[in-house]
Amino acid sequence: MALLLRSLGLGLISAQEFSPNTVVQRNDNMARVGLVWYSIFMASDDLNGIKDDGDLRVFVQNTEHLKNGSLRFDFQCMVQGECGAMAVVWKKTENGEYSINYEGENTVAVSETDYNLLITSHLQNFRNGSETNVLALYETCRKYGLGSPLGVPSQKGHRCPPLLWSGNGTQGAW
């Protein structure tokens, strides 16, 4: 019974921190998301792209809104079997999405965000006549008072960091 009461108390405390009124859907005010983020979860309709060595499995570390409206992403991904750091600039489109040509044509949009703790993004990849959709959930390091989620820079021959939420689902890379 004591455990049940403690769980209820923790749930109420957590609920006070989250305010559904502050969640924004499909907002293109990306100037507010320039924080240090880390990947929690990815899901896709084609799991090959987000497997450990998939070309769409990326670990965003930082976002920066540029003066011209574009977005710069610093991330890590597998390149020829090794974890490598990359930076890319996505150009803003007229409908609030961002696009880049990487392994095909790609668009990305923020599905939901509260600008402080969580971002859910939707990436569409168009390559060789097929479309792949990837949903990703990111959490800010600021929640834990951290500047960098990894703490240790990636070194040659090391694998990219795992997603923080691990399990064995069928539709997500965990």
From TrEMBL:
**Domain of life from the UniProt record:** Eukaryota
Which of UniProt's keywords are assigned here?
A: Disulfide bond, Secreted, Signal
Residue ranges annotated for the Lipocalin/cytosolic fatty-acid binding domain, each copy included: 36-138
Keyword Secreted belongs to the record: yes
Chief subcellular location: secreted
Q: Where is the protein found, in the record's own terms?
A: Secreted
Which GO terms label this protein's molecular function in UniProt?
small molecule binding
Keyword Signal included in the entry's annotation? yes
Q: What Pfam families has UniProt attached to this entry?
A: Lipocalin
Q: InterPro entries this protein is in?
A: Calycin, Lipocalin, Lipocln_cytosolic_FA-bd_dom, Maj_urinary
Query: Residue span of the signal peptide, if any?
Result: 1-15
GO terms under cellular component:
extracellular space
Report the sequence similarity comment from the record: Belongs to the calycin superfamily. Lipocalin family.
Q: What is this protein called?
A: Lipocalin 9
Natural source organism = Aotus nancymaae (Ma's night monkey)
Organism classification: Eukaryota, Metazoa, Chordata, Craniata, Vertebrata
